[in-house]
């Protein structure tokens, strides 16, 4: 089959974001091994301040480099992990690894705020908050340095089950971000109940923000709504200078996307921060000299 063809075969799946039952069974056993053998990695994508491009923090994104098949995208293997009961273990690893990395960066003189993606099933574990708190304590990281991203649809999926966990997170001092916002049809009342600090506008709206009036109006409305509720607004998937300008005009607070940087390894992030800091300083020098 195409899957056995090696290298680029998963590109096919990436396109359709799903695979049949037999593929899923193969994937889940490969994924189990990958977890045991430590083949998962986190890459980090910067978020910058909309107004001045200053570095704010990163989103941690899971990477699975399959020994024969190359990079398997998370949109493909996270649903498999959820279906086959692997997501709690993987989620624990993500939080542990993010905390370990924050500590390593801090020891190296860089305080980096990290956002991790958390799945609905992870949130439903009774001990999720306790485990997260203990990972933070073990690495001496303040809760305010870690942000939990949950998708709007995940937050809505099982409001009763997640509500108490989300409230508990708030009590521990962990900030919450509502990911892929605009795709989940949540109500105003629901949003107000969540202990969230941030909304991330889904990439599908960002894509068209400078070319389509409906997308622009939607972003405009979300920014106003978020600000009225005291939430910070992040636009994800910013790829062009046109999108950047439109999002700044509309009052977005933070931007993230290939236009600034692709997700990268922990080491490369530090060079990126240093280079960017230097570039921004020299820009400031240029303008004062002019
Ligand atoms: P997400 O949380 O919405 O993450 C943003 C996705 O958009 C990432 O894809 C990122 O690489 C991609 N992206 C960033 N900027 C751009 C851009 O300018 N253009 C385009 N076209 N894409 C951009 P990625 O890494 O493939 O992750 C996909 C999804 O997988 C994530 O969407 C998230 O829902 C899930 N995921 C990733 N890591 C984890 C994890 O550790 N745990 C859980 N539960 N889910 C994860
Ligand atoms: Mg996310
Ligand atoms: Mg997102
Ligand atoms: Mg997304």
- Distinct small molecules bound, one entry per kind: ligand C2E, magnesium ion
Q: Looking at the chains present, what oligomeric state does this protein adopt?
A: single chain
Helical/strand content category: alpha/beta
Strand order of the largest sheet: 1-2-4-5-6-7-8-9
Report the sheet with the most strands, covering strand number, pairing sense and barrel closure: 8 strands, mixed, barrel
What's the gyration radius in Å? 20 Å
Q: Please count the beta strands (DSSP E, at least 2 residues each).
A: 9
Summarize the amount of helix as a percent range: 40-55%
Low-confidence stretches: 1-16
Anisotropy-based shape: globular
User: What is the percentage of strand-forming residues?
Assistant: 15-25%
The tally of helices reads 13
Give the distance, in angstroms, between the N- and C-terminal Cα atoms: 63 Å
The SSE string, one letter per element, is: HHEEEHHEHHEHHEHEHHEHEH
Overall residue-averaged pLDDT value: 88
Protein name: Bifunctional diguanylate cyclase/phosphodiesterase
Keywords: Membrane, Transmembrane, Transmembrane helix
Walkthrough of the structure:
With 290 residues, the chain is of the alpha/beta class. Helices cover 51% and strands 18% of the residues. An 8-stranded mixed beta barrel has the order 1-2-4-5-6-7-8-9, surrounded by 5 helices. Helix 12 links the parallel strand 8 and strand 9. The protein is globular. It starts with 9 loop residues before the first helix and ends with a helix. Mean pLDDT is 88; it is low at 1-16. The structure holds ligand C2E and magnesium ion (3 copies). Residues 59, 117, 149, 179 line the site of one magnesium ion. The site of ligand C2E has 21 residues, from strand 2, helix 3 and strand 6.
């Amino acid at each position: 089959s195409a899957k056995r063809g090696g290298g680029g075969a998963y590109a096919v799946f990436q396109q359709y974001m799903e695979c049949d039952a037999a593929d899923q069974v193969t994937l889940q056993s490969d994924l189990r091994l990958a977890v045991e053998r430590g083949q998962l990695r986190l890459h980090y994508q910067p978020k910058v301040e909309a107004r001045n491009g200053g570095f704010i923090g990163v989103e941690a994104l899971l990477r699975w480099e399959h020994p024969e098949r190359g990079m398997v995208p998370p949109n493909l293997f996270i649903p498999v992990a959820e279906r086959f009961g692997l997501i709690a273990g993987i989620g624990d690893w993500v939080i542990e690894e993010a905390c370990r990395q924050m500590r390593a960066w801090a020891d190296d003189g860089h305080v980096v705020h990290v956002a991790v993606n958390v799945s609905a099933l992870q949130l439903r574990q009774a001990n999720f908050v306790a485990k997260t708190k203990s990972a933070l304590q073990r690495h001496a990281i303040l809760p305010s340095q870690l942000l939990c991203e949950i998708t709007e649809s995940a937050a809505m999926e099982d409001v009763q089950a997640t509500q108490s966990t989300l409230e508990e997170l708030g009590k521990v001092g962990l900030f919450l971000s509502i990911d892929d916002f605009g795709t989940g049809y949540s109500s105003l009342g629901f949003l107000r109940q969540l202990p969230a600090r941030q909304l991330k506008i889904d990439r599908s709206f960002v894509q068209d923000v400078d070319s389509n009036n409906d997308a622009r109006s939607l972003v405009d409305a979300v920014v106003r709504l978020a600000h009225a509720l005291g939430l910070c607004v992040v636009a994800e998937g910013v790829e062009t200078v046109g999108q950047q300008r439109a999002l700044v005009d509309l009052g977005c607070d933070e931007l993230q996307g290939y236009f600034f940087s692709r997700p990268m390894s922990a080491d490369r992030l530090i060079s990126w921060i240093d280079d960017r800091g230097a570039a921004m300083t020299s820009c400031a020098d240029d303008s004062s000299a002019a």
